[in-house]
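@channel sequence for tomorrow's demo:
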Amino acid sequence: METLMMVGVILVALLAIGLILARLYRRASKEVAFVRTGLGGQKVVMNGGALVFPVLHEVIRVNMNTMRLEVQRKDAQALITHDRMRVDVLAEFYTRVQPTSESIANAAQTLGQRTMMPDALRELVEGKLVDALRSVAAEMAMEDLHEQRVSFVQKVQVAVSEDLLKNGLELESVSLTGLDQTNREFFNPDNAFDAAGLTRLTSEIEEKRKRRNEIERDTQVSIDQKNLETERQTLEIARDAEYARLQQEREIEIRRASQVAEIKREQADRDRDAREAEIEANQKVELTQILTHRQVEEERIENERVVKQ
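structure tokens (generated this afternoon):
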């Protein structure tokens, strides 16, 4: 009996210990690692887990996901380029904690729980990101920055990567999602950089305005010349059409007159032939009459002669 009770006590004790250990056992995941400090020294847990005893241990969770840190600089805080112009930028930095024990330990030590809060992390490292943006922008003219965005992004990535590694962070990529010239109202004429940029900006604007006016005038002249040429061609076509119409009418009149003359000539020929036929018929009748009269007269004379004999 006592043996059974002893066994029961041992089983209950083992079950209690198992439940306690299960509650104290902390597991890591693919998305979240942790660093345990305190009794037994520092332990980085990426896969698997570890026992965490209250009071004896402290745990710092480290986010292993990619985090998007957005940095915007515009207006009075805009970047200053090599040609002293101001540009408004919006950049996105995609970063994560390197999946190594050393980097996770550095992130836990330098960033604490901020890896679990991207906004808090951005506030902490924003200075490094902005410094990289400003240093690279200072090496490029505004026009080059616009035309060579890929080069700008690559230089920024190189400039900030090493600093982020000190915090255990790996910079995956940088995206320049916004880039535009700062409104001139934010150029401070009492600032040497802004004064130089404002002078350049004013000069470029005036030059482009003049160029635009020249282009507009040249375009208008070209349009007027084209309209004039079109009108000239239209008038020439109308003139040629009128000439063709008059020529056609003339040819028709000539043809009509020729046909009328031909008809009259044919009619005259027919009339002449008819008159000649009539004259010839009359002559034949007269000749017949003359012959008949002569014959009658001869017969009369012959008869008279016979009677006299």
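heads up for whoever presents: The first strand starts at residue 25 and ends at 27.
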